[in-house]
Write a structure and sequence with these properties.
By secondary structure, this protein is of the alpha/beta class. The protein has 19 helices and 8 strands. 53% of the residues lie in helices and 12% in strands. α15 packs across α16 and α15 packs antiparallel against α19.
Length: 422
């Protein structure tokens, strides 16, 4: 993509920055933690659970979940920021608020020692509770004497393996007769979290995010709140955009069982949080979804193998392989493409500029986000499927439903395979 195209997109972002700002700010003001985007703890929003048409009973579940709440993935999240603020402290450039901020970051870094990238206890509870609700909502799936196998596959990542263990041990506790089979390794990464080169997108993606921050965030209030001498401090920190890094570092605190001040709620204003969230929304949408600029290369490359595998395994379960559920544990980068690939509601084709305001990472891809395909069958053997995103029913606008959120399995299967261009 040439620079002229990049500049035209940036101009559209800057001009349209306030079009839906109120919508985003309202979404965040309802729950400040949502500003954290994919660092937001698990939240069920707009809950719905429609009953199946008369005569249909659940018999099988196909599932994919992002790992639960985790620690930050790298020490680098804190090292540079703390070093810069420590130098400001040494030169007596921090206000009382600035000192409190620095001490909070130090506490967070200390809480992370030896745990970078691992699942937190909050994440463990999320997976346990999701499993418990699944069992309670669909007991007939897990009490069928002919289908006792839970086939569980995880990414090689420790936090995903930990998520799988928490989920499946809860299921086993609900019904000790269930047979849980655990799998992980390189063989499974081809579909559970397929690697895909997106280097071609990075240049535009960074231009978009930088442009959003330039348009929405000036940092003057935060600079004055944090530093006694803004000009001197600026020479040390380098840019007011250090507060975006600080925001990212503080946002993780909601995922920890630790007595750490929740500065996300007290240090920033709603418009500041919305500016950071809008930048992240656009960045992740541009990377992992279908856009007018990049098309569906990533969605097909990563979501395609996963969706194909889910259909194949559902076919085998329907034939009668003894599986009550096929459950999978991976990452946001693999789950996200499934939504636009399937054409699930709220995932249309958009410019990143528009997506940043309308499409909210904190809603669709919080920690432990999951997609559940619930299969129902009547006495005649007719099969329906219902999709649940984060435990709430969702629709596919392009596919005609039999009733409410229930689709004919055969029609859904054909539709899904047609969406995959492998």
């Amino acid at each position: 993509m040439n620079m002229k195209k990049i500049l035209s997109i940036i101009i559209s972002i800057t001009v349209g920055a306030s079009i839906n700002a109120q919508q985003l700010e309202k979404f965040i003001s309802e729950n400040i933690d949502r500003a954290a985007g994919n660092l937001h703890t698990y939240e069920i929003i707009d809950y719905s659970d429609a009953k199946a048409p008369k005569g249909y009973k659940p018999f099988y579940i196909s599932h994919y979940s992002r790992h639960g709440s985790r620690y930050h993935s790298s020490e680098s999240f804190y090292t540079k920021t703390i070093a810069k603020l420590t130098e400001c402290e040494r030169q007596s450039l921090l206000t009382d608020d600035g000192k409190y901020l620095l001490n909070t970051l130090r506490k967070l870094k200390s809480e992370h020692e030896g745990m970078f990238g691992y699942l937190t206890q909050v994440g463990s509870r999320q997976q346990q509770e999701i499993a418990q609700r699944m069992f309670d909502n669909y007991p007939s799936v897990f009490k069928n004497k002919d289908n006792k196998i839970i086939y569980a596959v995880s990414s090689k990542s420790e936090r995903c393996i930990q998520s799988m263990a928490n989920f499946c041990t809860t299921m086993k506790g609900c019904n000790p007769s269930l047979q849980v089979q655990y799998y992980t390794g390189k063989r499974y990464m081809k579909y559970i979290s397929h690697s895909f080169d997106i280097s071609y997108q990075h240049k535009l993606k960074h231009h978009i995010c930088d442009s959003i921050l330039h348009a929405d965030f000036n940092g003057n209030r935060l600079m004055a709140k944090t530093f006694t001498d803004v000009k001197k401090a600026h020479k040390i920190i380098g840019s007011r955009y250090i507060f975006k890094s600080i925001f990212d570092e503080l946002a993780i605190s909601q995922n920890l069982d630790a007595e750490i001040p929740d500065l996300l709620k007290t240090y920033f204003t709603i418009p500041e949080l919305a500016a950071f969230a809008r930048s992240d929304n656009a960045r992740y949408y541009a990377t992992w979804c279908i856009t007018e600029e990049f098309g569906d290369k990533y969605v097909q490359g990563v979501g395609g193998p996963l969706l194909k595998k889910m259909i194949e395994e559902a076919d085998e379960a329907i034939k009668g392989n003894g599986h009550a559920a096929d459950v999978r544990f991976g990452h946001d980068s693999a789950l996200m493409p499934l939504y636009p690939l399937l054409g699930i509601e709220d995932f249309p084709v958009r410019h990143e500029a528009e997506a940043g305001e309308i499409w909210h990472m904190g809603k669709y891809m919080c920690m432990a986000s999951n997609l559940q395909l619930i299969f129902f069958k009547n006495k005649e053997g007719d099969i329906l499927v219902k999709l649940r995103r984060n435990e709430s029913d969702v629709n596919i606008p392009a596919l005609k439903a039999v009733s409410g959120p229930f689709y004919s399995w055969n029609e859904f299967r054909n539709y899904a395979l047609d969406r995959i261009s492998l």
